[in-house]
Structure prediction request, 492 residues.
Amino acid sequence: MLTFTRLHHCSRLLLLNNQISRLFSVSSLVFQNKSASDFERYYTQKHEWLQRTDKKLNEVRIGISDYAQQALGEVVYCELPTVGTKYKKSDSFATLESVKAVSDCYMPVDGEIIETNEKLKEEAGLINKSPYEHGWLVRAKVEEKIIQDIEKSLMNEKKYQQFIKGDLDDTKAT
Amino acid sequence: MNYFLRGGSRIIISTSTNVYTNLALERFLAENIQHQPKSKLLILWRNSPSIVIGRYQNPYVESNLNYLFENNILLSRRYSGGGTTYHDEGNLNLTILTTRDNYNRRKNLEWLVSTINDSYVNKFSLHITKRDDIILEDSINKQQYKITGSASRLTRTYAYHHFTLLINTNLNHLRQSLKSNDRFSIKSNATESIRSSVTCLSNYESTIQYETLIDILAKSFWKQNQQTKWGSDYLYDYIDPQLFQNQLKQFIDELKSDYFLYEVTPPFTYTILAHNNRTIEFSIKNGIIEDIKNSNKDEYEKFYHKQFYLMYNDIKQL
Prediction:
C-alpha cells in the first residue's frame, strides 16, 4: 500500500533538467521513502509496465519489461501510436518487430497518448538496452481513479518477479 | 466456415493461389478459430507469382517494381515481420497457428527439417541456422543455400509462424524480382532483407513433387500432434476461399490497397542524381512526399505533397 506524508515547509524539486533548485513553500504530497521522480512500476501479465511520471499530472510512462525484451530478441522496428489517441485497457497501442516476429503491445490501463518516444524511430534497440529508462514507449494521461486503484489491476514489482519466476519454473518443468 | 473454425489440431490446404486471398485466409483463421491450448493448425498454401514483403519493409528497396508489373507478378505485404520472399507454385507456404503461449518457432522448423531429411536420406541434408533459416548443404560443391524464409505474427490470443519452402521455383524470376535498382537511393529504418543464395529441393531430387510432399508433411504433422485433440474427421481438409468471400473481404481489401502496400512503409528518403548533376532528395512519410531538397520550382510544384508511388516513374525520369 502506498503511504504519503504532507510537507508544510520548503520542498525541493529534484534536478531533472539541470535547473537551479528552487526553494518555495508548498503543501505537497510526497510518497514516503521515495524521491519525487521515483515512482513504483506496475506490470501486466503480458509484461508491459506502467510508471507514474508526475504526481500532479496523472501521467504515466508505459513500456515493456526486461523479461519481455529478452524474450523478443533484438527489436529492429517500433510502430508507435499517434498522439491524442485514446485507448482502453488491453487495446494494442504499439507494434514491435524483432527477429522476424511482429508483436503487439497492450495498454495496461485506459489512457490517452500524450507523447511517444521519438528516439525509438532511429534506435528501436533502446527497448532492449534500456527497457525501463530510455526504451519507454509512450506517455499517457490516465484518470486519477485508475491510478489510485492501480494495485488492484496490476502487479507491483514483487508480485511481478514472482509471476515471472512462476513462468520460468513452468518452462523448466515441461 | 464454422467447420474450419473448430478448434483442435488439423491441416487445412487452400485451393486458392491468390496471395491476397491466402494472406487474408491466414489472418481470418487466426482471429476466429476457437484456439485450444496445445493444438496446432497447419495451413498449406501456394501463390501464383508474387512478391511478399514483411510488415515494416520498403517495397522499393526490396523489389524491382517495374519488373513485377511487366511480368504480372503481384506485390503484397504480409502482417508478419521478416524479409521479402518470392512466391510461385513451386514454393510451398506453411503456416503453423497456435495460442500465444504455445508459440515455438524452432520446434516448427525442427519438425520440417526432420520430416524432409528422413524422407530424402542421401539426397540432401537440411539444417537450421541461428537466424532460424533452413539451409541445404550441398556436399558436392560445399555450398550452403537457403531454402526457406521464416516470419511470425504474435498477438495476445494467437501466434502464427509461417515459412516458405522452395521446391521448384523459377529462380530467374526470383532473382530479377528481388533485385531492386533503388536499394542505394533509399535511406530508411525499415526492416531490410538479408540476401542469401537460394536453391530448390528439386535441384537435388528431381522427383520431388508438390503432391507427394504434401502427403509426407501431413502424415508427419499428424504423427507429431497425435496426443492433441484432432479437430477434423480427415487427415487434411481443402478449403476454397472463394466460398467465403464475405468473411475475407475486409482483409483482402486491405491487403490489396495502396494504403497497405505503399503508405504504411516506414518513412524514408529517396535520393536521385538528376541529369544536370543535382542531387535531389525526397522525404516520404505515410506515402506522401513531405519535403524535397534541391529541386527547382517546377519540380517542387509537380511533386510536393503527392503520393510517392504515383510519382515514382516520373521521378526516375529526372
User: Anything to note?
Assistant: The longest strand of chain A covers residues 48-54. DSSP finds six helices and 13 strands in chain A. Residues 86 and 112 of chain A are 4 Å apart (CA to CA). Confidence is low (pLDDT under 50) at residues 1-37 of chain A.
